[in-house]
Inverse folding.
């Protein structure tokens, strides 16, 4: 879990992984939801049995102008919330002609500015995206394939938390710390939870909590971060999990393990494996509860907003124990 | 269930109902979630047992420019979805300096333009809102009390569908048709489902499906509609349900039963009773499944986006059987 | 000026005109402002002498939700104006911590939803735009060439109004009525105004006023309209005017004179000739004044907002006599 | 021009100035444009004669995400420019069904985030605004009185530049430096320009150029700044100028001269005197030209976007010599 000392990931490594891990066609030529297909109705029934305390955890940061965006990445900004009608107006008599006193509001937000799902149309490999669709099917009118709305009733199943820093006995992983396959497997063993086909796996690095404690986001959104190493793409493919989520901006370790390419793990896991990715998850409360009762599995329900042709969606993920 | 022939609801009737049904202070002076307090952990555990088939239903309309808004109400408009980065750009080599090929996007939307939760700060009674808070606490900076973010981990429990037109043997209720207490109770008996404390009760009128079949929304968002009669406020208070949802724009019958005031039922149920309201729910698929298996209860999870100080939130409500 | 009965404009006609009228390179390989180069400092000095009455006319429609957009064209919508702070809040004491009472606001608007300039990056011919730049230089990050900000100090000079319906003795031209070169020339003669190199030529069709009188926009923004015939592209090239403006949505006659291609005149005049185009100009008051004093020339100042890399800009054009 | 050593401005001073300088009713009870009434047609004719070189200067900063907003003031942010259609899409064949290849775009921006006019509805005194209108007439639906659209054909006349740092022989005034009446008068004498009734007076402090040279805005938008002292309100009233503009965020010296109230000069000049204020003007090029030819007067045309009921407008002000 220390910074990798071995050779950097090369473009050839990326290409090899792409070929080795490719899931295209596995669920038919028309599939647009990828590894979410790994969830069976029985998995959902089984997951429901994990609701034993009746205790729900929201894994969302609130969406507001205190969010993590600081201009580091591609024109993203924090949510802008404005009012169309207010209680102050109502009391001042400015709504009398309407006959009911009310408030109303509006939001302008990048879909990936806060707690969020990446849709499968979010990342491309060469000229293609998930399941081999032409990347040009994501144009100025949106994602004509692999849009987030295709997953609207799919983000439900068994959730598993892998709390890496707690397992290591530390508050949070340092930026740049890579999490490898061994880390994932040993952490799961230590926390007595088995990762299974169809799971929503949530990785805690502690980075977000570190920022929240410090009262400043710094490079959280787009800068350096602890996160998954490139090799974990193989683990994702092998375990056949449904989705992978993290308390960081992009799940993947940064600085990246490459010399040139940016976000090499993304190149593989979204377009080639077809996995949905959850980012900027707030896991503090859930993690503390898991530590307390020793149960690292739970029912998970994180429905995206079905914004037509969108390549992501803000989400309020719910874990229930 | 025919159009009311008896006397219209007067301002005095509204005032009387406000006094009679007021829940203020019931959950302490600092409460901001109202009847969501009716849900106990055991209710959630019990609701989980309703997941027997592992089948999930999204109750959201997709969010896009084909949505129901047509300018009838208060400057609301349909979602505006634009791209910050596209696959076409990626393939054309316009992202080479970034090192990863990706798409990204943004939305501008009124929070109540589609499938949505009303927060308790959405409607006022006189100069106050839920739990007696000053209505002026909802100003241009948002709802300093009773914002939607307070409910972020609360919209979970047992769901019950009351399919009024199916019980009546018709496709949909006509606009202007009021649903009374007798209708709710008889429908529940006929559909062999009991409404209990802490439930999320979803009313189907068929209006949305009628519009979808016709291929035009007409006055759906702000015009006439079938819906709940004023008298059902008493039923809501008596049954102690957690939330009430509908497949219409505003749950309430329109034209309203009043001569002057607009949306009289809203005056009572949100600010006085403190109930969260779900609107523009898409219930067709769920209703067909309920009709088929005869089971009108289910696990319900509809987490709002915790947009800080917002008076509503778009939502993708999930029903699971 | 009747609907054309002769043969339709073919793709070959368009290609021929493109070659015949091409201005590429005329002002150097790095030019991004096209025919605005036709204006000399002396032209501006001369134009200033047309200010004889000290009377200014705004040629802008107000920007609000009553604007002409009705969803006919490419996701354009009317301006959305919302408040960040209000006087009602101020009086209610909601701003006391700030120390000054104020209102503030925000707009979301397509840049071409109302009275507007088209930038030279707005229309492409094949894979190129004005001056031969690759059309792909207009990507999701905007127009890296031919953006509106390049014209920020250029929209100043002599304005000329050609009031076609007044010359014809009618209120407005019918939709579909084409204005040809003869019309332009004869109207100028009749109105005793000479069109000169470097002019801002404003064409009145009366369509906007017809819509305003009717109280509904109908197909104004994207539907049928009176307007310039394809042949006028040659006139524009020959006269070396600086810009062409109109009281319609797109200057060009609609239905178009083609069988297949849309907006053939646009194909030529923007990318090949390099002329800036003003659209949705409100000319009623100016036209009435010109009719009254018989003077159809004036000082013209219509500065675009220099929105970096934008392909258009809302504008409040000013004519001064 | 050093930091004031005499007593601070008190609330009583503000109240006294309000009474002393009040222009309410001067142009009738229905007036909504204040001192813009000071401009006569003859003033415009005379101003036109100042166009002697045919040289135009744009006084606007470009509007983009490099703008000065940094979150210091009231939820303002820099412009967000996104594309609705692109040349990349066009070339990739994604627009073939449309028949014309084009780009289109959209902006979301606070109206006062960059170079801008304050409307008279922007600042309140007590419960009133310009001409005595109730401040509550600016509600969530905008400014029902004193909106920027009322000035749509008024921002035209004689412009005068007072280049304070150049007169002082320095690059820029330090933040906190107050400009007094003596400074204005002596600078005008030194620069051989007379300030007259109906003028648009533009003050240069050099602060913006200092930020541009440094490559960072720092506290430019909302922090400390050089600017006009409170006493200049009397000068504004006495000179009967039409408008006052500056190269700073708010014209007024900051830290303010008060102990409690914020922006005391604003309290007086906008709501009591009724003067339109231009802010964040880019005057570098104009100032250099004035220094070179010794002529500090020019024709000025700065039409606001007539956004209905807005309390400000972005603007591209044009000075012509």
């Amino acid at each position: 879990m220390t910074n990798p000392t071995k050779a950097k990931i090369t473009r050839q490594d990326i290409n090899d992984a792409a070929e080795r891990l490719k899931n295209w066609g596995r669920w038919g030529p028309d599939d647009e939801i990828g590894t979410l297909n790994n969830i069976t109705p029985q998995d959902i029934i089984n997951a429901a049995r994990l609701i034993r305390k009746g205790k729900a955890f929201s894994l969302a940061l609130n969406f507001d102008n205190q969010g993590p965006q600081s201009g580091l990445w591609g024109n993203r900004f924090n949510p802008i919330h404005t009012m169309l009608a207010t209680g102050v107006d109502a009391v001042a008599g400015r709504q009398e002609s309407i006959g009911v006193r009310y408030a109303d509001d509006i939001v302008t937000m990048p879909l990936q500015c806060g707690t969020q799902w990446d849709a499968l149309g979010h990342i491309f490999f060469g000229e293609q995206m998930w399941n081999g669709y032409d990347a040009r099917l994501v144009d100025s009118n949106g994602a004509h394939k692999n849009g987030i709305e295709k997953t609207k009733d799919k983000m439900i199943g068994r959730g598993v938390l892998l709390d890496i820093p707690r397992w290591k006995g530390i508050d949070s992983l340092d930026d740049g710390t890579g999490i490898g396959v061994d880390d994932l497997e040993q952490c799961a063993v230590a926390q007595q939870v088995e990762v299974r086909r169809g799971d929503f796996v949530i990785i805690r690095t502690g980075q977000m909590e570190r920022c929240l404690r410090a009262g400043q986001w710094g490079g959280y959104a787009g800068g350096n971060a602890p996160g998954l190493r490139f090799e974990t793409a193989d683990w994702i493919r092998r375990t056949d999990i449904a989705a992978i989520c993290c308390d960081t901006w992009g799940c993947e370790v940064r600085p990246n393990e490459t010399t040139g390419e940016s976000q090499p793990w993304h190149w593989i896991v979204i377009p080639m494996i077809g996995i949905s990715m959850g980012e900027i998850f707030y896991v503090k409360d859930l993690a503390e509860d898991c530590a307390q009762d020793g149960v690292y599995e739970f029912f998970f329900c994180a429905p995206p907003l079905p914004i037509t042709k969108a390549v992501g969606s803000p989400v309020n993920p719910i874990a229930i124990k």
